[in-house]
Write a structure and sequence with these properties.
Elements (H helix, E strand, L loop, with lengths): L1 H17 L13 E6 L4 H11 L4 E3 L13 E6 L3 H6 L4 H17 L4 E5 L8 H10 L5 E5 L7 H9 L3 E4 L6 H6 L3
Parallel strand pairs: 1-2, 1-3, 3-4, 4-5, 5-6
């Protein structure tokens, strides 16, 4: 009898250990407004992944609160590119201001935010880290390429804010958890 109870307890512990830290399936609804925080080319990768997943997604690189009408989720691609910011006629403070205003409007309209970081280690640096620190805490879930989290920044923020975090080895592997995150 004791070995049966021990066996059941062991199985329960193993099941809990294998479960994700938070729910990662069916959190979000469509249609999706896809935008950038930092104007990196990773926004194009995110668009391709979402289209491959059959998701109803509209890419608006410089989205504002006015663009939220009719959308049920904001997907925010975190990754700064000085070249991308310059091409958009922005500097980091103006980009931060734009994204802050967008996410405030999203919060006011009860539209959840889903953050992606697809550029891995190559897309990290002080500028990206400032955006991650500012905007990841506002997300309901995040998917990141593991090499971009080697210092644990995403892990710490997500743990502290109780945000489900999914890490993938390669950008293409993000397609499945992104698709599963939507109802």
């Amino acid at each position: 009898m004791l070995s049966l109870i021990s066996g059941v307890m062991l199985l329960a512990c193993l099941a809990l250990a294998a479960a994700p830290a938070g729910q990662t399936g069916g959190i979000f609804r469509q249609p999706i407004l896809l935008t950038s925080a930092g104007q990196s080319a990773d926004i194009q990768l995110a668009s391709v992944l979402m289209k491959r997943g059959g998701l109803n997604c509209t890419l608006v690189k410089l989205a504002t609160g006015k663009d939220l009408e009719g959308y049920q989720t904001v997907v925010l691609v975190l990754g700064a590119s000085l070249k991308g910011l310059g091409a958009a006629g922005l500097d980091l403070p103006r980009e931060r201001e734009r994204v802050s205003a967008l996410l405030k409007t999203a919060r006011d309209k009860n539209i959840p935010v889903f953050c992606l970081h697809l550029g891995g280690a190559d897309r990290r640096g002080q500028t990206t880290d400032e955006l991650v620190t500012a905007f990841l805490p506002l997300a309901r879930m995040a998917v990141v390429v593991k090499s971009g989290n080697s210092d644990g920044l995403f892990t710490r923020i997500c743990r502290d804010k109780n945000i489900p975090l999914v890490e993938v080895d390669k950008t293409i592997e993000a397609a499945e958890p992104i698709k599963k995150a939507f109802k």
